[in-house]
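Q: Hi! First time doing this. I have a protein sequence and I read that you can turn it into a structure. Is that right? Here it is:
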Amino acid sequence: MERNETPEDRAFRAEVRAWLEDNLSGEFSGARGLGGPGREHEAFEIRLAWERHMAAAGWTCVGWPEEYGGRGATLAQQVIFNEEYALAGAPARVGHIGENLLGPTLLAFGTPEQRERFLPPIVAVRELWCQGYSEPDAGSDLANVQTRAERDGDGWRITGQKVWTSLALEADRCFVVCRTEPGSSRHRGLSYLLVPMRQDGVEIRPIVQLTGTSEFNEVFFDGARAGADDIVGAPGEGWKIAMATLGFERGVATLGQQVGFRRELEGVIALARRTGAIDDPLLRDRLTRSWMGLEIMRLNAVRTMAGVAAGAPGPESSISKLVWGTWHRELGELAMDVLGASGLVAAGEPYDLDDWQRLFLFSRADTIYAGSNEIQRNIIAERVLGLPRETREGTR
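A: Yes, that's right. Below is the predicted 3D structure, encoded as structure tokens:
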């Protein structure tokens, strides 16, 4: 990226780098490296305080227009910010879902009143969001959503269940895909509602994962309410808006994610040198292929950023999800093979995992959440390559 930067971009990089170096000190000196996939339980209050500190200095939502509290950063500058944030070892963001998923969705599809109401608390990190998509029978097959919402007086009444809801315990609100047209099926009759989480009628049950942590949750809506104006787009447009949100999820933040991937790969290579596993030609070949895969991943991500820059991203964003999810899962498997038999033993009692064990276990989810590999391949085949649609039950 640096080879193609303008003088303005280089100045921006220097500004971001200097601010992070100056501010990841004092009360936040111990925040470096905290949180992240499989470790969202770590130091949540410290990470929240850090992010509000960032907000006070104008370093949240940097790519948003200035009129909505952002910096109006160019696409290149957004990439720079995410890269420098990752290179500094800054803690995992707690407002990611609001800033990178819901915010861009409201900028693209929300009303002026919704933007005025919901965007400032995201910028200030006063309200945290979660995503209400998956259900027990509608995970990767999102179009099978059965959670219902009915007009009831001056608002909506929501009934149903969501699952695998990241950070639901900490969230103040949830954007929920639900069925608002009785008798509808598949993509039709869905709507996109903005639902308060802290109310009667919302129950959250943490799901204990292989890592022993509980980032994911079940959420039960039993007559929960949302206001009449808490719908993004018109009733029945929920599928279109939900797909745009998924596209934003695969935007510029993935470039910072890849800095973390590079660190993990470098760590696995160093581990292979220490254990002597690097002398195994098969493992050495896999390490080389992993390095090549990371380079390809980065080039593909930069290439597909044009869709984000142009507004709502297109189905091409599924390529990035398919590539990085598969690569990261394979890196976890490679780390365990480098460790050998010692990787089968917990670091301590009762279930103390080291970084490589946690990487292996949590990365099993990478090819499932945010759309499984199978779904991504269908999207690429049908909506990017124009191949015939898969025949599904009920559509013959």
